[in-house]
Each structure stands twice: as C-alpha cells, then as structure tokens.
Amino acid sequence: MQLALYEKYDLRLPRYTSYPTAPHFSASVNGRVFESWLGDLDPAQPLSLYLHIPWCREMCWFCGCNTKITKQYDPVGNFVVALRAEIASLLSKLDPAHRFKVSHIHFGGGSPTALKPEDLRAIMADLTDRIDILDDAEVALEMDPRTATPEFIDVMADCGFTRASIGIQDFNPFVQRAVNRVQSFELVEDVIARLRAHKISGINVDLMYGLPFQTVESIIETVDQTVTLNPDRLSVFGYAHVPWMKKHQNLIPTEALPDTAARWAQYEAIQTQLTSHGYSAIGLDHFARDDDAMAIAQKSGLLHRNFQGYTTDRAEALIGFGPSAISSLPQGYAQNDPALARWQRAVEAGECGIEKGIAVSNEDRIRRDIINELMCNLTVDVAAICADHGTSADRFTCEIDRVRAMTQDGIVEVNGTHIHLTENGRPLVRAVCAAFDTYLDHAHGRHSQAV
Q1: 284-327 pLDDT, tens per residue?
Q2: How many CA atoms lie within 13 A of 24 on its CB side?
Q3: Exposed/middle/buried for 287, CB within 10 Å: 0-12, 13-18, 19+?
Q4: How far apart are the C-alpha atoms of 59 and 110, rounded to whole Å?
Q5: Among 70, 71, 138, 303, which one is most buried in terms of CB atoms within 10 A?
Q6: Which residues contact 384 (CB under 8 A, 6 or more apart)?
C-alpha cells in the first residue's frame, strides 16, 4: 500500500469494542439504572463476566490501561475485599428464583498475576458459589510473566482456568528497556511450559509495534521467537501514544517513535511473517491457527467483539467488576468509576460503583450490528442487517455513499448494500466503520491512531 494512502486514512478513531463508544457515556446511567438492568436479565441466557485487577508491580511506559503500581500487598488485599463485596452485591441483583450460568470469565488489568494465589482462589470461589460455570466455558486470565509464580499457576489449574494471555510486546532488550518492560524469552518460555503442564492449553500472546527503537528487522526477529512458543492466538497492537491521558508515557523517548510510514511497515511485516508461519489474520489485529476456535468462528461468521477485543463468546450480557470495568447488557452499557479510591468507597458502603453509561436505542443497535460485522468479518450486507431489525437500508444511503468513495483507493468493494473490505483495507477497517458512527466528532475526538 502506498504511503499516501496510509497518511490519508491514518485517522484517530475508536477501536469499536462497543457502539456507542465509551467517550459518549454519561451520568444518565447510574447505579440504580444498572441494578434494574441486572434484575431484568434472562436467566435462560448465559452470562459473561469480566474482572478488572488494577494493579501491577511496575509501570510499563507504553501502558494505556487503568492500573496502579505497588510493591506492597496491603493495597491489593484491600482491593480484593472490595472486589469480593462487589461480586456478592451485583450477583445478588440477578433474578433470585434462578441460578445463572456463565459461558466466559476473563480476568484483566493491570496484571491479575499481582494477586496472591489464595486471593485468586477466593474470588473464584465467590463466583462459583453464586453462578454455574458451563462445562465448555472459557476461563481466561491476562498474565505478566514476571509475576506469574508457579504457585499462582497451580491455583489457576485448580480453579479451572482454560486460557492465559501472556504479555510479550517485544523481545528486543533495547526496546524493552526503552518501555520499562524487561523480560527474557526464557522466562516467557518457562511460564508457558508450566501452563501447558497444568493442562491450561489455550495460549494467547500480545505483541506490539510502533514502540521506540523498533525496526522491521527487530520485529521480525520477535515474531520468529514468539512462534517457537506455539501460541494458538496472537494479538498485535499498535502503540497508542496518548501522554495527555497517560502521563507516564512522557517517559518514552518520543524521538525514537516510528513515524506513520515506519508503523505501517512494521504492521505489514508482522502480518506477512505470521502468515508465513501458518497463522490466519482475524479481524483487525488478531491472528490464530486455522484449527483455533477464533479462526473457526470467523470462517463461520460467528466472531464477536467486546471490550477485551475479539472473542468467541456470544453471551448477550457481560457484567464487569472492578474499577473502570464496563458492563454490556441488552439495555446498554455501564462503566464503573475508574478512580480506584472512589470505586472502593462506594462498594464498601454497599453502593453500586457505576459512574456512567449509555442506554442503547434501536438506531444504535442497527449501527452496532453493522460495525460489528465489519470489524469481525470485514464484510456486511447492510440490507440484511436492516431486515433483521425490521427496517429498510434506504436510511443508510449517505453512509454507503461515503464508503463507496473509498473504493477508488482499493480498500473496499461495494455492490449495492454489500460492503467488503479488501485485504489491503483490513488495517483500515475502523475508517470504514466510522462512516456509520453518528457520535463520532472528528474535530474533538482524541482516539488512538487507526493503525
């Protein structure tokens, strides 16, 4: 793809893990509203749970997550007490006449490996006391290999975890020092071996491009090292430099960050190298073995996207626990207060920690379905989506025309109401989705780069 095309579409756009996206949440959705939504959930439908653990031992300077740093465990232990109280409170709001089932549990952060093993066990016990985990459920946890002790992995196995997501980012020591994330290949290799020895066979790894001092050559070397670990899935993210939001990113030497052309070259090098190793591209930024459930879901048109990215989980309701966690329910979205102290005080007082959210309208649902199809499957029939919602595609004539204008750049093909991303258009899918986003304010949005 030509550099001019990169620059034309290298816009700052949402990642579309929801629609409407989080910047449009407001105080119109509060704890009282959220609790009423929970009470209306259908007990016949399985739930998905997300637990946000906002703690790390060290700050990675590239990090855009909601996390805090501590080398003492007392603050983490106090958080665990509050988290367990929130679990008890929110799950008690579900229809008491039924015992709900869960198809997916995901621990994110931060670093869930900042927990003591016994606290992870206690949290899982609180969940299983109140809900039933389906036999084929995915129970996943994001791991910092530097704090993933053998004892922690033992407890993961005891508690039925099936998948682990390992943060690698880059194996080059020079790059690692520049972002304050120093970990050896041998350490990561040992952690993955321990997980597999405990029958935790689902292995994701995270890689990044756009970091300081990265080159195409160094990234290819990292990819080749990573492939020897035989992960079944990889997430490949472009570093989002947003120091106005994350002050610690000011510690990164900005003069060493790649420009737009270099970022694109790195992205394309990763995609080419992973494809040569037998991985298939999934959506915007994931890769998987052809026999992996995520690759199968994409081929079947069943891939989904939520706040953790691409997923095979199809639950209609996701309940979030912990500061900043976002719940996605049929009625709308609700986000916990991202400020740890405020969230903790609310929960300890027996209140709901919700700070903001948004109720989704029928119009939002139609646009969300269109955007989800594009993000997950790189193709959509707008008329079919509209028919599912009992309306006509004529309402999207202007949006389809905006997308049709992109055909001259070879990133999409438009045939009537059918929109299909070309392979060259894959990394620009967010720009196509933006045509259907009525909330997007290009003048005031401060999102990450599209690639």
Answers
A1: 899 999 999 999 999 998 999 998 889 999 899 999 999 999 99
A2: 18
A3: buried
A4: 9
A5: 303
A6: 417
Tokens of 2: 């030509």
Given a contact cutoff of 8 angstroms between Cβ atoms, the answer to whether 35 and 352 are in contact is yes
Q: Is the dihedral of CA 18, 19, 24, 29 positive or negative?
A: negative
User: Phi and psi of 296, rounded to 5°?
Assistant: -65, -40
Q: Characterise 16 by phi-psi region: left (phi > 0), alpha (psi -120 to 50), beta (else).
A: left
In 325-420, where does DSSP find H-type helix? 340-348, 362-377, 382-388, 397-404
List strand residue ranges (DSSP E) for 93-174, in order.
101-109, 132-143, 163-169
Query: What secondary structure letter does DSSP report for 244?
Result: T
Q: For 79-99, how does the pLDDT look when each residue is reduced to its tens digit (9 = 90+)?
A: 999 999 999 999 999 999 999
Strands 286-289 and 202-209: unpaired
Question: Which residues does 270 contact at the CB level (< 8 Å), separation at least 6?
Answer: 207, 209, 219, 220, 223, 236
Report the SS3 class of residue 215: coil
What is the DSSP code (8-state) at residue 11? -
